[in-house]
Amino acid sequence: MIKFFRYIRKDLMEKNKTGKYLKYAIGEIIRVVFGILIAVQINDWNEQHKTKIKAKNYINKIITDLKTDTLNIDELIVNGNKGVKNIDHYFEFFNSKDATDVKVEQFIDSALSVQAYFMKYYPVNQSFKNMEASSNSSLLNETQRDLLISLAKEQEECGIILESQLEIAISEIQKSTHLLGKPKNFYKQLGTENSQERKMQGLLHIHLRLDATKDLYHYIESRGKKIKARSKEVILALQESIH
Question: What is the DSSP string of 52-94?
């Protein structure tokens, strides 16, 4: 191709057609420049297209995480409400006039039989964490990033509060176990009786454990609803980028 251009240039120069040669040369330069610009533009478009696909994949994964997290919170709230009812039912029995003559052992048995299980909240946000760790958070706009960061903080705070409440409940279990003995027939196996005072103190700590567990359920519901509302807001913001 170069030889061909040289041949044309030589032919035009020999025929003293410098003006035509210059026009031809300028035309070729313009064609080359346009060709380069088009190639650059196509390359930029390809890179932008790849970036959009990458961002869309991340966003879809984050949205899936948020929806899963919301479902998990719903399940925790439902189970927590059941636990609250069971705890309230026991305390209604304890506070009733009909229960004034009930022996402390019966209260202990009833309190220990209350179905109130411990629960933890494990945020589902691994996709966003991976995005941040791989320095790809720039694929999101500022509003989306700020919302996700704010949500992550709320999730973390919720986990810390629930963990603290669990520690209180577990501490009360340990105290009641120390006072009442474990297994249940511990003192009987030793051929002795536990004192009424220790039994009452043990029952008190069982009550404190039930109270702490009930508070745990309330925190799950109140904090969970806030996280759900924030997640809904984030999902709407993310969906704007993929529609």
Answer: HHHHHHHHHHHHHHHHHHHHHHHHHHHHHHHHHHHHHHHHHHH
